[in-house]
# Entry
Amino acid sequence: MQVLSHSFLPRVCLFCLMIVAGMVLLSCGPGTQAPAGPTNPYDRAKEAFKGGEWDKAVDLTEKLAIATPPVDSTDRARVMRAVIFTGQLRGAKEVAEAYGKGAQKQSGYRRLQHDILVSAAKAALSLAGTAQQIAPDGVISKELILDVSYPTIEGPPEVKELATVQDGTWIESDQQDTALANAYRKGVDDALANALGGDRAKARQALAGGPAKLEGASFAIFLASGLTEAAVVFDHHHSLDPAKPRAMCDEGEASLKAASAILKDSPDKDLQKQIKQLQDKFKTIRKSIA
# Structure
């Protein structure tokens, strides 16, 4: 067997080191770097929305929504936030109602119901604030833009865990978390469908081609409908402060005023019927908190 000379060994080792160093440089080179994600706050919010990270999307659009003077994405940020808050409100409200029924047999659900109602109240107040931004003083743009992608994980048509809760059967914390996550997904998906005037399939199709245009009157009615649910969260069963449900009614009626103003020039019997129904709901809510 041939024995390598001492002078050859260092050259071999040096050559190996050069190869390794080259591999390291290549691995760190621009060709293998992960592509940078979006840097614009609104684009990042869109990614969060698509992934079902609602709180992150809300945080990323906070400054955009209150920008004075408005920036390019301010209106789009407000519309996105309105959909999120509506979905969160509906999801939290559905879970709270299930816990309320379950508490008749499982007292532990009463505390959970209280905690979820706090979340519902937060979403309700946020929706009212966003509605005020979109339709200040009862005036709304004739056209708005919903610039989001349909969520990657679709919410279930029904949250099966809540059926178990309503029967009075106890579910563990992991199932509670799953129920709330699914309720929020369901709420946002349904809110998208309502905002786009159809079902989930229509909403998915509408958003597949990019930003969707919304008629101002229809979206104002969407806001008002959400605010009727927001007002219920603060009814006399859940709050001793009548100012909050009244504030929900005020903002909801302002949205209906905005819708009516647009429809004066372009009457639509179906939309006008919806406005009348919502006006009656607000009257009923006001009587209950008088």
In short: Residues 41-219 form one domain. The CA atoms of residues 64 and 73 lie 7 Å apart. Residues 74-102 form the longest helix (29 residues). Residues 1-32 have pLDDT under 50 and may be disordered.
